[in-house]
Amino acid sequence: MKIVLIMPKGNTYSFNNRSVFFKYMPDSLTMGVLVAIIQKNFPDIEVEFYDETVEKIEKEKISADLIGISSMTPTINKAIAYSAYFRSKGIPVFVGGVHPTLCPESCDKYFDSVISGLANESLVTLIRDFQNGCMQKIYYQSDNMSFENFVCPKRDIYENKHFLGTELNMVQATFGCSNVCEFCVQPYVACGYHQRPVDDVIEEIKQIRDDYIEFVDPNLAKDENYLMSLCEKLKPLKKNWFAPMTISISKNDELLLALKKSGCEGVLIGFESVSSDSIASIKKGFNKVENYKNAIKKLHDYDIKVTGSFVLGLDGDDEFLVEKTLNFINEAHIDYVRFTINTPYPGTQYYKLMKDSNRIIEDNFSLYDCQNCVIKPLNLSADSVEKMHKELWRRSYSFMNIFKRLSYIKPLNKRIKEIIKNYVFGKVYIKMLFKSKNFISKIDI
Ligand code: SF4
Asked: Fewer CB near the last or first residue (10 Å), C or N of the chain?
């Protein structure tokens, strides 16, 4: 039996052309995890995968007994198109991923089967059912799914794909988030908040050859005791690492010291906005705008870099947002910045709220990629939010603003090195995000 897995690409976060100048690393662990689950439980099944975020898919050349597609909301239209193609050839297709997790019932007419939630157990059941001729319509993540001995992603799967980046250096220790920030999808995607045993995570990291690890947890600092024990066990491995956390870590000096000693080089913090009204509108109450600068200074005191993430199009935003945000990031010396547009995802309470208030202005899910404004903002037009988004990316990564942001770094030679890295990061991201910002009306597969 042969299973083929497909990850369709969306409008952003994917490269159209191969280049010898950039490493091609996939955006997620998903393919590595799915391949590992199948190989561990079904050693006799042949498994092949195609990750369209880094390679072209020649669907006509694919032969399989069963096709699995992983999809997020912005790629669901493409997933549906692939499904229609393979089903027309008589090959059954199942789908999983964030979008099918959030709204499995809306997917079931386009696919033979749907996995809602993490696939670790459901995928095994689905394949067994398929072999026994009784594949069900929807498989839900069980409430008591174990996070011990979690399958480790197969990291070498890209080795034969002729890409420069051949090993996944991403790791996930915790899943989901139990905070209730209204605009965020993370509380939904793993059916709650879950931790893997620290020792399991450490064993996995020991297998990674790269000296640099990137945690892809939504919020690695959700449980500070857990993070502390992870730091203690990371220290002897002498790896450098990066992870998303919340600003709350800045209050805990003991933890900051442990982070630094364990090799933490940088953190991604969701500041979301410099407007207190906007923060209040998304119910992220622990983000206090007045504390941001001190929190960043504290992280810098421990030599931890800060990547700040900001969301545009929130209900407290006004026409002064660009200048206020730029001034803030320069004065606060945020090392790297990222900007996205507020996007309510189908299947969440926030989407329902927007729908019930008649604020959804775009039904094409291909545009739900946080780079397009799909709702009517309260105080601005959707067009102006999209313009602000572009403007903030471009101006933040202008040479002058990078220079201002990083003026805190000493000595000078270290600062120059960081300025160059920052400039290149900005150029690559801006090219990737805005290369094809045209309305996707046609889904080519
Ligand atoms: S924004 Fe961050 S802290 Fe809030 S729910 Fe999402 S992951 Fe958790």
From this structure: N
